[in-house]
Known about the structure:
The protein is α/β, with parallel strands linked by helices and about 325 residues long.
Amino acid sequence: MTDAALKDESQRPAEPALLEDVPGWFWDHDRHSFDWFMGQQEKAGITGDLLEMGAYLGRSAIVIGEHLQPGETFTVCDLFDSDAPDDENAAEMDTSYRKSLTRSAFEANYLAFHEELPEIIQAPTSILAGGRIAAGTFRFIHIDASHLYEHVVGDLQVARVALQDQGVVVLDDYRSQHTPGVAAATWGAVFNHGLKPIMLTECKFYGTWGDPEPFQRDLLDRVDLAAGCYLSAETLNGQQVLRMTGSSDGIGEFRPSRHHQRLAAEAARSEAVQSRRALQEDAARDLAARRARAAELRRPANVAKRAARDLLPPVVTAVIRRARRG
C-alpha cells in the first residue's frame, strides 16, 4: 500500500456499529424526547418537514431522519469544513471542533443508518433566512449551530417563520456555562417574542410558538414516556414548564447500523486471534522456562551435586547439607 493510500485509510471516518459510536453530545433523555415529540406528531397525523441547524457528525440527525415520513423533507444546515462567516464564529469552531468536523464524516455516519442523505446545505445557518426555506411547513426544528447570541437570535427567527402552528423547536446548550449567548437568546425569545416552553432537559429546551398544553398534558399523563423518565412542573411568568429528570434505564436502544453485524463478526474474529496469540505466547514462555530449567540442571556443577546426592548415603548427604547451611 502506498504512503498516499495509507494516509487516505487513516483519515477515513470509523464505521459506526451503534449510534453511540457516532461522536457527539446527544444523550438518552434527549434522544427519547426527540422520538417522543415527533412520534406524537405522527400519531396525530401531522406531517411537515424536518430541519437541523448544526449537525456536527450526525448523531442527532440520524435520530431525526428516523422520523422522516413520505412526502416530507429533512434539511441539515451546517458549515462542516467550510470557512466561518466571521472571526468570532471561526474562533468558536477552532476551539470546539474544527479538526474533527467534516462533511464526509457526517455523510458516512448518516448513511450507516439510512439509505439516503438528507438535503444538505453547507453554509452558515443565516443563509436560511429570507425565503431559502418555505414558511410554515416544518413540524420539528433542532437548533445546535453557533453559540453566539446574534447567531442564535437569527436561528430562532428562521425557526419561528418556518414552523407550523404546533411545530416544535429544540435548542441545545440553553443553560451551559460556556454558552451564555444561547441562554440569552432562548429566554429573550420566551419573554419578548412569544416562544412558549414545553419541557426542559439537562441539555435542551423544547418549545413552540403554538399551544404547549397538548404536549404537556400527554407528557404528564406519561403517554409513551419511558419508565425511567420523571417530570416535574414549574411556573415561569405564568407559563407552565416541565422538567425531565431520572435515569435512562427504560429508554430503548436505537437500532444498530448496517455495519453492525460485519463489525461484530470482525471483532469476534479479532478477539479469537488475540486469544490464540495469547495462548501461544503463554505456551512459548512456559517452554522457554522449562528449557531454561533443563539447561540449568545440565550444568556440570549441578550434575555433580545430583550425582553426589544420589550416590552418598542419606546420613552423609544430610550432614553435608547442614554444613553448607551452617
